[in-house]
Write a structure and sequence with these properties.
The protein is mainly alpha-helical. The protein has seven helices and no strands.
């Protein structure tokens, strides 16, 4: 059985999405310096996150046979990864939407909620990236022992 692609890819979205959220938080104080960097990291992290998610099914059989993982462990990791992609996808959509000139002009008065929304989504994404990695690590390093100790 060959090594699946998933473990080779997962570190990119972990690092990129984590850094995107941190840069977005730094952008509160210095938006000109950190906001564009956060956008680039977010876009790259989201794309690599989709790639990691799509390759996850290919590693399921490998994780069960080599690491002794259970299907429950794998599906918990998979579900949290899906929620992570939803949160970061919403964050990316909000950031793209409010960069469009027509949206900025038309909804200038209602833009006050955009910044808090971006912060909430960034923090939620940060927590979800942590838990996605945590449950992925349990699959690899704890096998069936992890399911006995939730």
């Amino acid at each position: 059985m060959t090594t699946p692609l998933h473990p080779l890819i997962v570190h990119f979205p972990i690092a990129l999405l984590f850094l995107a959220a941190v840069m977005q938080l730094f952008a509160i104080w210095r938006p000109r310096l950190f906001d564009r960097t956060a956008d680039i990291l977010l876009g790259l992290g989201f794309l690599s996150g989709i790639a990691a998610y799509m390759t996850g099914d290919g590693g399921e059989r490998y994780a069960i046979s080599v690491f002794g993982a259970t299907r429950d462990m794998i599906h918990k990791h998979e579900n949290i990864a899906f929620y992570t992609l939803i949160v970061y996808g919403l964050l990316l959509a909000v950031k793209i939407l409010f960069r469009l000139p027509g949206v900025r002009r038309r909804f200038a008065a209602g833009m006050r909620w955009a910044s808090p929304l971006v912060m909430i989504l960034s923090l939620a994404g940060l927590v979800l990236v942590y838990y996605t990695g945590h449950y992925g690590g349990q699959i690899v390093y704890h096998g069936t022992q992890a399911s006995a100790n939730p």
